[in-house]
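Dear colleague,

Following up on Tuesday's group meeting, I ran the structure prediction for the four-component complex that the binding team flagged. I've pasted the input sequences exactly as they went in, so you can double-check that nothing got truncated or mislabelled along the way. The structure tokens for the whole assembly follow below. Feel free to forward this to whoever is handling the docking comparison.

Inputs:
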Amino acid sequence: MTSKGRVKVGIIGSQFEGDIHAASIGMVPDAAEVVAVASPTPGNAQKLADRYGIKRIFTDYKKMLAEKDIEMVTITAPNNLHAQMTVDIAEAGKHVVCEKPLCMTLEEADMMIETCRKKGVLLMYAEELFFTPKYVKAKEMADQGAFGKVYLVKQAEKHFGPHAPWFWDVDKSGGGVFMDMGCHGIAFCYWFLGRPKIKNVFCQMGIYAHADKTKGEDNSICIIEFENDAVGLIEDSWARRGGMEDRIEVYGDGGVTYADLHMGNALPTYSETGYGYAVEKAPSTKGWTWPVFEELWNYGFPQEMRHFARCVRGKEEPQATGEDGRVVQEVLYAGYHSARTGHKVELPYVSPVAGTGYGAYYLTVDDDLLQFCQVVLVKGIPEP
Amino acid sequence: MTSKGRVKVGIIGSQFEGDIHAASIGMVPDAAEVVAVASPTPGNAQKLADRYGIKRIFTDYKKMLAEKDIEMVTITAPNNLHAQMTVDIAEAGKHVVCEKPLCMTLEEADMMIETCRKKGVLLMYAEELFFTPKYVKAKEMADQGAFGKVYLVKQAEKHFGPHAPWFWDVDKSGGGVFMDMGCHGIAFCYWFLGRPKIKNVFCQMGIYAHADKTKGEDNSICIIEFENDAVGLIEDSWARRGGMEDRIEVYGDGGVTYADLHMGNALPTYSETGYGYAVEKAPSTKGWTWPVFEELWNYGFPQEMRHFARCVRGKEEPQATGEDGRVVQEVLYAGYHSARTGHKVELPYVSPVAGTGYGAYYLTVDDDLLQFCQVVLVKGIPEP
Amino acid sequence: MTSKGRVKVGIIGSQFEGDIHAASIGMVPDAAEVVAVASPTPGNAQKLADRYGIKRIFTDYKKMLAEKDIEMVTITAPNNLHAQMTVDIAEAGKHVVCEKPLCMTLEEADMMIETCRKKGVLLMYAEELFFTPKYVKAKEMADQGAFGKVYLVKQAEKHFGPHAPWFWDVDKSGGGVFMDMGCHGIAFCYWFLGRPKIKNVFCQMGIYAHADKTKGEDNSICIIEFENDAVGLIEDSWARRGGMEDRIEVYGDGGVTYADLHMGNALPTYSETGYGYAVEKAPSTKGWTWPVFEELWNYGFPQEMRHFARCVRGKEEPQATGEDGRVVQEVLYAGYHSARTGHKVELPYVSPVAGTGYGAYYLTVDDDLLQFCQVVLVKGIPEP
Amino acid sequence: MTSKGRVKVGIIGSQFEGDIHAASIGMVPDAAEVVAVASPTPGNAQKLADRYGIKRIFTDYKKMLAEKDIEMVTITAPNNLHAQMTVDIAEAGKHVVCEKPLCMTLEEADMMIETCRKKGVLLMYAEELFFTPKYVKAKEMADQGAFGKVYLVKQAEKHFGPHAPWFWDVDKSGGGVFMDMGCHGIAFCYWFLGRPKIKNVFCQMGIYAHADKTKGEDNSICIIEFENDAVGLIEDSWARRGGMEDRIEVYGDGGVTYADLHMGNALPTYSETGYGYAVEKAPSTKGWTWPVFEELWNYGFPQEMRHFARCVRGKEEPQATGEDGRVVQEVLYAGYHSARTGHKVELPYVSPVAGTGYGAYYLTVDDDLLQFCQVVLVKGIPEP
């Protein structure tokens, strides 16, 4: 691999997230370029390649990994494939960018981290909120002491349901909106506060709008207590009408700030006839709407991809790592456990059921297990 | 008592809330007039009387109760006096308006309700959020079906600490910000949703900004699950800088609305020199500020007082009752219990310690009690 | 007439404005009550009377004027009837509240003022912006010095066209949106700045959205220079989509404030199904909308009516007078003149065409007249 | 010159705008790089070079023009030097990026355009509002028909006074805030509407806050009528407290949109202690503030510089040209003429005083000239 020039990137996946990766890398041509895309469904990789002028296409990602010049591979495939793909990419000696959530179990997370470490490649976790410019400004102010000691950080992400139908199937998605989008809020609070150790997690969730479609929760509230005595409050919803919502609030004993990526950034607009595009998930472009501008930039995707490419070149240190992804997974599992039992769950989290996939815990729990959980919680978390 | 004309009102108390009552009743002169005020500290009643042209003043409220023409008495005295005052007023055959929180224990609440019932007078609970016009509009829209089935109602009230110094002393106040302001949010969610039965309560709270001043919590988060499957999320703070904040959010499977009484109503204003008055708790009138207009009207105090007076005249049915106040108290005690134990607490709530004042529970709990609570919770709530 | 008790009010007119008067007076029952309504179209007065419980109805307003107990009469009839009605009311010895615009010519204004003066009755001009609470707060801050010396005041009122079809017919309305709503902005700037003498007026206007319906302008921009060196910038439109807009901005060398009665006060709301009522002129209650609350109160109509009633009782001095209305008319005519000629027009304004109704000036001007006007303007305004 | 690779750029000037150019080009490293900077004051070029890692520095810009590899030169020097520098750059065979305003007279503008044409180099006018992403989104929606026929476009830019002291001296700056910032609004409306011919201009201006410092106007209002019947309303101020303001409003017969680069994009923030940086011209970072994020990107400077570099490579057509700059100058002069005379001024604009620098017109006009102007205007604009 060379130490100069654009980082050559291969993308695994060609759908919603694959498109975002290709578009975002296209916006930072000084840092990286997409040279290949792999997607198992015949024709899909070609469509993405056509949109973005990508030269090489593959149906088998392993063949893409054999391309010598590719230095970094981004994973936008379904969650249950993340772990194996990461191992394969690392073994091919290429750097890994893995979409959220990192994987399906904490054991998978440990294996991914360890394999990349051994192979000497970077495992980068694609949490774009670490690069969202409005949120980055909030963190800068916090780090400059603007808010004194920060005691409460809130993040909310809400819309009326996921892009792809498979999200509704908990057997495929491993959960509902908390699994799908809670990962962002968990990562955000953890990062914003400077990665303090997490003490415990409390969650409330339910199915409110989409019981006809899914067994997964479509609204969740999550409270995290950190060891530095700060609190995270994370709200996620697939049941919020009116388009996308992504907001934070930061409270310190010396100040407060609010950031809203949508209503707080957009152009309040009324149109009788409608227009091209308002925002992700917008129900209409007629009547009053909240169109966004430079959507990818305002989410921070291009900035994120530039950062990852610069990490590959050794110019920056990764700001979003496999370890971060593992923390998120741990809180997700503890959160589901909490929602099921009605208790605050202490971390480190250990599944009460040995040999069970953690992600599926919430959905498979039965009354015996519940009984067991309560006993476990009162007595304290057993060691593995 | 006459069935016509202005309702003649006596006020017990002359400080912050007493002033609000006098001013608010002055804004609805068609419905009521303040004819007397009682305050034990010599001179205090006189000051209020001077400001509002009130004719009769008393240091002993019981003497005020002997005035024949007074039909309604409002209580703005410290919380621990509410129960006895209510009984005295009722026994004098006058209608009662009691400020929040209703009382100190559920037994007191039961006694207040029962005494008023027996004496044939109204026990009205002064929860002004039921009359806040912006929130009333939100409820009207909800009741018209604007949001489909409402599954989440949020209310937040935040500022940087209470008006009077005695609030910091938990022995006098019975708690911190959750006791002081959480009562509003609990009442609001309950009322907004149509008074569904409450299933359980989870609370997180702590001392973040004022550990030098108080043992009471200065920030709290409360989650309520209702039997109609809706959820209430209530946030309160004495640690929020920048002036008063009072907001709601309503989420249904068919829509959403947001209402903010301060930043969302005010005139964004910049002044080099400052000016008369911005808003309750505003740290300054210089620089950027958010001045409110017709503050009492926008909170709903005059509307509330007009309603209470019309109830006395039989023209309206009380919308905020002693029973509502009792529900609020129950959730407050369950909330403190939950914050202490880290568990969701099921309702109806029964204190684990017989003969203990519920309000003081949070503050007096020791390790033995905690142990006891956990056992109790796992086994279920014992009958008294 | 009595010096105590509610002021007894008769309303002339039963449509949009008549309804507002009846509703507003109903909100201040301590100060006034509507006892009669007169409307020439059979049945119309009855409908209004039914909605508000008004006892006496008339088709001939002159018969209503014969009712001895009526003390104040409000005029909500078409503009060309204002002068005669005012004279008739004054001659009946009753106080006059006249809706905007005051009349059709400056001679009419002079006669109305003089007649009321002679008869010893009050001529009150129903400019509700003097009572709009959010705007009153802005003025209070200005008067407290919050903005230093105020050099620019802006007011805008915009929607997509008038309530009643006759507004589209310039022969009936005497003009377009500048005549219909510009009167508010002119009055507002004049009042806000403390009624300084007006130096000159510049106007730009045109027909942009409704050329199929009207010969009157549907968008206007008006700049007023005052003798205290402040400037007024007034924008009005019948061509603004999306509902009602009413906003002010105040700029001083020491500060600035913004007030928006609609988007800045409302609850941002999304509804799939719609709901009862959002705001005057709202095109829909589905999708995103900006519903207002306590609409009349936030416009200031009840406060205005209470003020007028208290003036009748001698408890307040009229804050909105016939003289104010005359100033507004003068600026309106000068504004039309300016829009036609492209020149700033100096005040006092004298019509260049003797014997012409001023209100009709804009619409009847021909090329010869234009030529004449230009000469006049370069040479200075001729004396009458 | 090569047809590939980064465009090599030299900057003339090292102060406020020079820094923006260097920073913005640094944000689009795929398209361009700054290789040299020239500034006559010894040491200034070095400081800029140190901040941005620029290798070559010059005190004489003509020596910089001798550098063979430089392909594009940006001018950030005082306005009165723009014309000569443009000629020098063009004669050196390099492309020109000229900051606003383009020059001092229309003759200069004509010469600049003609020289660049003859020499086969691009003359690009640095109007960043054509690239401001929020405004670009508004224009995209307009071009998609979202607002039907647009009849009114507004732009406002306001703060409390310029960066550099020489702006206060009208002999150096050629005018006040209308000259300094009105150029943006004129260009914006013209561009937004698709460059329709301009019919006439009306201006009102005065000195309101800074009479102690300047003879130039510190507040201006400008109305432009276009041949497509649309209107531009442009407001500029050096007398607006509270930090920077940059806003647009777009009204069409089918819809409306609002965009605010500051209060409408920022994070509402309260800080007791302050923090690093809020926004250009912010008076403080304490109390309530409106901090911006990715400030250059949200203004559009990097996007502008990338566009100019791509134009040099032939990949895009210039969107902001010398001809655009000339239109702006013409409106500026007509605007000053209008403000002086109180008349709408028709375009094309011809100075009434042969041989006079147009930019100085407003300031040198005397009574004789005024008399002359009025005659001219009544008779129509004479041909040159």
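Residues 219 and 237 of chain A are 4 Å apart (CA to CA).

Cheers,
M.
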